[in-house]
Design goal:
1 helix, disordered N terminus, about 10% strand, alpha+beta
């Protein structure tokens, strides 16, 4: 047990001690009053000054003291007065009991009337609430029907979406094929353009060659004419 020096207490391992002086007899141990005597205590180094009970010894409850002389007479007088007060209280209750009972019954009747009016008002409120609940129930039924229709429409839309997805997929595949064909055609077109350029170059070179040959032919023809003229001159001289 650990407790504070003085009149405080602190919960420990086994219970609580309210009076913390050495040799104390009044102890609250696990919620039940017992009489023990603190045998040994040990100081604990704590800022709050706690002490630790090392051991206790349970002792018997002290006997009630028997009073004698004037103290006994005073006690007898006090007891007699208490008995007389109880007797007078019983007599008053005998005579005032019916009146108080009637008053209590009247009060109870008034309370019951108030409760009845309150219950009637509650009944009206409950009827209104019942009407509201019926309206809510009908609205819920309509909402359920609407929900079923929406579910059916959702199913049909889901089917349409699946069909459209399949169409989109097939179109995507066809688009891929067309893209591949366009790519191959572009390659062929580029090759044909290259060949055309080559043909154009060959045509230009051939035209240049023809022009050169025509020029050479003209030169040869002029030479032939000169030779024929010379031959004619030679024949004339002969």
């Amino acid at each position: 047990l650990t407790f504070l020096n003085g009149a405080g207490f602190r919960k420990g391992v086994h219970g609580k001690i309210k009076v913390c002086t050495e040799g104390s007899r009044r102890v609250l141990w696990d919620g039940r009053p017992k009489f023990v005597r603190v045998v040994r205590m040990r100081a604990v180094n704590d800022d709050l000054g706690f002490t630790d009970v090392k051991s206790t010894k349970e002792v018997k409850r002290p006997k009630k003291q028997i009073y004698e002389g004037p103290e006994a007479v005073l006690g007898l007088v006090i007891a007699s007065v208490a008995v007389l007060v109880d007797i007078l209280r019983a007599v008053v209750l005998v005579f005032t009991g019916p009146i108080s009972t009637n008053a209590r019954l009247s009060q109870r009747v008034r309370v019951l009337e108030k409760e009845s009016s309150s219950l009637k008002a509650d009944k009206v409120n409950l009827e209104e609430d019942l009407g509201t609940l019926l309206e809510v129930e009908s609205a819920l039924q309509v909402a359920e029907v609407t929900k079923e229709r929406i579910s059916e429409q959702s199913e049909s839309l889901r089917g349409d979406l699946e069909e459209r997805d399949s169409i989109i997929k097939s179109l995507s595949e066809e688009k891929g094929k067309l893209t591949e064909q366009i790519r191959s055609l572009n390659k062929k077109s580029k090759a044909m353009a290259d060949r055309r350029q080559e043909y154009e170059n060959q045509k230009v070179s051939m035209e240049l060659e023809i022009q050169r040959l025509l020029t050479r032919t003209g030169e040869l023809e002029s030479q032939v004419r000169l030779l024929e003229q010379e031959n004619a001159n030679l024949r004339g001289e002969q």
